[in-house]
Design a protein that fits this description.
Two copies of one chain form a homodimer.
Chain A: E1 3-10, H1 14-31, E2 36-40, H2 45-51, H3 57-65, E3 68-73, H4 88-98, E4 103-109, H5 122-125, E5 129-135, E6 147-150, E7 156-165, H6 166-182, E8 186-191, H7 197-210, E9 217-222, H8 223-232, E10 239-242, H9 244-257, E11 265-269, E12 275-279, H10 296-308, H11 313-328, H12 346-356
Parallel strand pairs in A: 1-2, 1-3, 3-12, 5-10, 8-9, 8-10
Antiparallel strand pairs in A: 4-5, 4-11, 6-7, 11-12
The complex binds 3-isopropylmalic acid (2 copies).
C-alpha cells in the first residue's frame, strides 16, 4: 500500500531546503522500495500570491488525505502588512487546528560536532538532549473572544483569551508522560500558576495525570524561572511540557542553546500519530534564494516523519546516520560553520547527504 | 523635608538582604544628612502568617503615604497550596496595581569583574548593558474575565484575558522611548503581532508613538525570536519594551545572561516617578536564613530609589561606587563566586560595602 506524503515548501528558504529533502526521499523511496507517493501544494505567502489566501481549500483537502506532511517554512516581509486573517501564518495555524495536530515535539539536541556553535560555554551544553512538548491547537493562539474593539471613551483595546479545558491539558499531558517514559522518565511542566488561573488548572491536571505514571519524576516550574534555568543549566531538563504560547518561546530558546537551529526538526502529531513535520527555523527571508540555508533540519524532519507517522524506522535511521556522516566529514552550511570551517551551499549539503546514503 | 521610605522585607531571603540595605541607608542618612525616614511593614507570606492576607490594609496605606518603597522578595513553598487570591504574590501584584506602578525598568548589566559567572561565552556578553521596560499593571496579569469555570459537558476550563488599551500602551511606550533617549537611542518592541490581536494593536501604537521620537531607531521583534536573539547575540539590544507577561519571561532571561541575577536591581514607577524598588531575584527559600544570599541587588535597588524617586543622585552614586569597590576587592557571595574565589556571607558583603562607604 502506498503512503501519501504532502510536501509544502512555503516561503523564503522553504523551497530550497525542501528541494534537498525531496531528493533524499525520492532516492530512498526507489532504493528501498518504501512505497512513498509525494505530492506538492501551496501554503503561506506563496499561496496568498497565487490564490489570495494562505491555506487554499485544495491544500487543506490534500493535507487531510495525506498520511503525513512535510512542511518548509512560511512568512516574509512582503506579507507583513496584510490583515492578520489572511497572513501566511494563518496557513500554518489553519493546518495545525484543522488537522488537530495538538502535540508538538521539539527536540533540542546538541550535535557533538557542533558544540562550538553554541553561545553557551561548552561544558554547560555538551551532550544536551531535551524535548519540549508544546500544546499546539489551543491556548491563547486559538482562544475566543479575540480582536480589537473600541471602548466607550473612544480608545481602542486589543484582547485575546488564554484558555484550556481539562481534556486539552490531559491530552498533551499524556503525550508528554509517554515521551518521558521512552526517555529518562523526567518531566518538567511549565506554567505561571502563581498568576494565571488557566495554568493553575494546568498544574492541577498534570499533577493528577502524574499518578498514572508513578515512574516519571514530575516537577513544575514557573515560565520565567524556566527561561532562566534553560540558560543557566539546560541539562537539568529532559522532557518539558507546556502550553502553546510558552512553548513557542521556550522551544525557540532551547533550540538556540544548541547554536544550530538549522539542525533541529519538529513533529506536530494528532491523536493517531498522523503528523506534520517541519524544521524549527523559520523562512529566513534575508537569506532566501542565496543557497545559504541549512537543509539538515528539514532532512531530519523527514526522518522523524518516516519514524512517527509512516512506521519506516530503518529509513529514518538511514537519514539520521547520513546526516551524522556529513557532519563528521566536516560539511558545514554558514549557520553552523565556526572558525576556519569550509562553508558549503544548501545544494552541496544535500548532495553530500545523498552521497553518504 | 523628610522623605518617607517604606521597607518591605517579605519572605525567604528578603529579611536578610534587607537588613544590609537598611544598614547602608541608615549610615548614609546620618553621614550625609539625607532626611530619610525609614518605616517597615509586612507583605507576602510574612503578612499572611501574621494577618491572614498578603497585603494588609495598613501596609497598603503606608505604601501610599511613602515617597518610595524598597521591596525584598516574596513567596515560598509553605504558601503554594493556598488559594491564588490570598497567596504571597497577590501582595506584590496588589502593590503594583494599587500604586499604578506601570513602568518596570529591569537593567541587565554585566559587571566586568563577573564576566566568568555568565553561562555565555565571554565575548558575547562582556560589556552587556541593556534595559527591559516591562508594562507592569496590565496585560494578562490583570485582564478580566479570568477564572476556572465548569463547561456544559462537565469538564472544567481555565481562562485569562490578555488585554491592552491604546492609552496603556502609549504610557509604557513613552517611558521606553524616554529611556532610549537617555541611552543609545535604540528601542526594540517585542510582541507576537503575527498571532495575537492585542499585540497587533501594541505594534501599531508603538509605531505611531515612534513618530514623536524620530531620533530613536525603533524595531519590532516577535517574542519567540527575541528569546533566541537574547541567547544568540544579546548585545544587539539596548532598550527593549514589552508587555507584562513577555516582560516577565524576557527580563528574567536577560538577567540570567549576566550570570549574576543576585546583582540586578529593578524599579517600578508610577506616572510621577514614585516607585517601588526590588532586586530581580526572588525569595530563594532554599537558601533563606543561611547567610548565603547576595545583598548587592537590594543595595543597588536602594541606589535606584535614591536616584529616581528621591532625587538624591549623589547618595545613589556613593552606593554604586561602593558596590564596585567591593567587587574590585574580590568580595563574592556564593552566587557570583567562580573558580577559587573566596566566598563571603550576606552580612560580610553588607559590612564590606559599609566599609567602602
Ligand atoms: C509562524 C508562527 C505562527 C509560529 C508560531 O508562533 O507557532 C512559529 O513561531 C512556530 O513556532 O512554529
Ligand atoms: C512573583 C511574581 C508574581 C512576579 C511576576 O510574575 O511579575 C515575579 O516573577 C516578577 O517578575 O516580579
Amino acid at each position: 500500500m502506498s503512503k501519501k506524503i504532502l510536501i509544502l515548501p512555503g516561503d523564503g528558504i522553504g523551497p530550497e531546503i525542501m528541494e534537498q529533502a525531496v531528493a533524499v526521499l525520492n532516492y530512498l523511496n526507489q532504493a528501498d522500495n518504501l512505497g512513498l507517493e509525494l505530492e506538492q501544494a501551496l501554503v503561506g505567502g506563496a499561496a496568498i500570491d497565487a490564490t489570495g489566501g494562505p491555506l487554499p481549500t485544495e491544500t487543506l483537502a490534500m493535507a487531510k488525505a495525506a498520511d503525513a506532511i512535510l512542511f518548509g517554512a512560511i512568512g516574509g516581509p512582503q506579507w507583513e502588512s496584510l490583515d492578520m486573517a489572511i497572513r501566511p501564518e494563518k496557513g500554518l495555524l489553519g493546518l495545525r487546528s484543522n488537522l488537530e495536530l495538538f502535540g508538538n515535539l521539539r527536540p533540542a539536541i546538541l550535535y557533538p560536532q557542533l558544540v562550538e556553535a553554541s553561545s553557551l560555554k561548552p561544558d554547560l551544553v555538551s551532550g544536551l538532549d531535551i524535548v519540549i512538548v508544546r500544546e499546539l491547537t489551543g491556548g491563547i493562539y486559538f482562544g475566543q473572544p479575540r480582536g480589537i474593539r473600541t471602548l466607550e471613551n473612544g480608545e481602542r483595546q486589543g484582547f485575546n483569551t488564554y484558555v484550556y479545558s481539562e481534556s486539552e491539558i490531559k491530552r498533551i499531558g499524556r503525550l508528554a508522560f509517554e515521551t518521558a517514559m521512552k526517555r529518562n522518565k523526567k518531566l518538567c511542566s511549565v506554567d505561571k500558576a502563581n498568576v494565571l488561573e488557566v495554568t493553575e488548572l494546568w498544574r492541577e491536571v498534570i499533577t493528577d495525570l502524574g499518578k498514572e505514571y508513578p515512574e516519571v519524576e514530575l516537577s513544575h516550574m514557573y515560565v520565567d524561572n524556566a527561561a532562566m534555568q534553560l540558560i543557566r543549566a539546560p541539562k537539568q531538563f529532559d522532557v518539558i511540557v507546556t502550553g502553546n504560547m510558552f512553548g513557542d518561546i521556550l522551544s525557540d530558546a532551547a533550540a538556540m542553546l544548541t547554536g544550530s537551529i538549522g539542525m533541529l526538526p519538529s513533529a506536530s502529531l494528532d491523536q493517531n500519530s498522523k503528523g506534520m513535520y517541519e524544521p524549527c527555523h523559520g523562512s529566513a527571508p534575508d537569506i532566501a534564494g542565496k543557497g545559504l540555508a541549512n537543509p539538515l533540519a528539514t532532512l531530519l524532519s523527514a526522518a522523524m516523519m518516516l519514524r512517527y507517522s509512516l512506521n519506516l524506522d530503518a529509513a529514518a535511521v538511514r537519514i539520521e546516520q547520513a546526516v551524522n556522516t556529513v557532519l563528521e566529514q566536516g560539511y558545514r552550511t554558514a549557520d553552523i560553520a565556526t572558525g576556519t570551517d569550509q562553508k558549503v551551499s544548501t545544494a552541496e549539503m544535500g548532495a553530500a547527504v545523498l552521497n553518504a546514503l
